[in-house]
Amino acid sequence: MLAFSYPLSPWLHDHRFAGRTVFPAVESMRVLLAAYAGMQDKDGPRLPLVVSGARFPHLIAVDRAARRLDFQVTAEPEPVPAEGTGLAACPAAATVLTLFWRKPLKAMTRLLRVAELKINGTGTTTGPPPPCPDGTLAADARRIPAERIYRELVPFGPAFHSLQGDLLLAGREALGRLQALPAPELPGADWLGTPLPLDGAMHAACVHGQQLADFVPFPVALGRRRICRPLRIGADVQVRARQTGRTAEALFYDLWLFQSGELAEEIRGLEMRDLSGGAIRPPAWLAGAPNRQDSP
Predict the structure, then answer these.
(1) Residue 254 pLDDT more than 90?
(2) CA spacing 20 to 30 A to 81: which of 28, 133, 231, 291?
(3) Which residues contact 250 (CB under 8 A, 6 or more apart)?
(4) For position 160, what pLDDT does the model report?
(5) Residue of 69, 122, 120 whose CA lies nearest to 99
(6) For residue 226, what are the contacts with CB-CB under 8 A and spacing of at least 6?
(7) In angstroms, rounded to a whole number, what is the distance separating the alpha carbons of residues 280 and 230?
(8) What's the CA gap between 55 and 29, in Å, rounded?
(9) Is 0.70 topped by the overall pTM?
(10) What are the CA-CA distances from residue 289 to residues 141, 211, 271, 276, 293 (Å)?
């Protein structure tokens, strides 16, 4: 088990949910992968990198007076299915990474499992990505300005205002543009690029989902993430989010991030759920047919 101390910066407090600062899921993944790179005593694995089975079972509520978060990271080989189990054999065993947070209490700390994922090595996903959005794919789409999104739908502070211009909502898809905003450096994670474009892509899915569900969808798991090229601060990024399924309690999306028309990252099987217990609901103006212009 590896101890990992994460220094807190003021930017993190712009990531708020239900009135409290919440540690971003994308940053949890970055901590895990940075720790893994450190364990390997190298800069990072060869790209493209595929991780899978990411889950975030507990939110990390960050106290404003805190100066750091204390984590523990474990890395274990995934058990290879035994012969005769009926399960497909793995060509190479994955590494399971788990992130534990030492939650401070009055007289002690409690170790909580807050994130986990599997490193699958390099590889491809099933099926090609859709074309990079160019702004003409949905001329009659509903357009919501980013200013209104961050004021009413995803009320984060400026450090997390990755979406730029208008977000287009058309059918099962959301199309938009992201700016790769600055994020604190994390030793060992340079090869991953900045985390905030992926966070902004999840904002696009959150807005699209608020049209469909009577709750504000928040990411709790993803099936597969493929990193093809690291996104750097200042990069102009296009995002395409596609709803792939839904239940009464959850929405599911695939996400693609492009830079200069080339695929940078893709996410398959993003699972989003209500984490407010029904206390936070989408505004009434967002429901209905997505075929009109929404002013700032």
Answers:
(1) yes
(2) 28
(3) 217, 271, 272, 273
(4) 97
(5) 69
(6) 48, 49, 50, 123, 124, 125, 265, 266, 267
(7) 34
(8) 10
(9) yes
(10) 10, 9, 23, 26, 11
Q: What is the mean pLDDT of the chain?
A: 87
Please, which residues bridge with residue 144 across strands?
A: 167
Distance of CA 166 to CAs 124, 145, 146, 283, 285, Å? 31, 4, 6, 18, 17
User: Strands across the sheet with 20-22, in order?
Assistant: 16-17, 20-22, 61-62
SS3 call for 192: helix
Contact by Cβ (8 Å): 196, 234: no
DSSP letters, 23-41, are --HHHHHHHHHHHHHHHHT
By C-alpha distance, which of 174, 198, 210, 199 is closest to 282? 210
Using the predicted structure, report yes or no on whether residue 113 has a pLDDT greater than 80.
Answer: yes
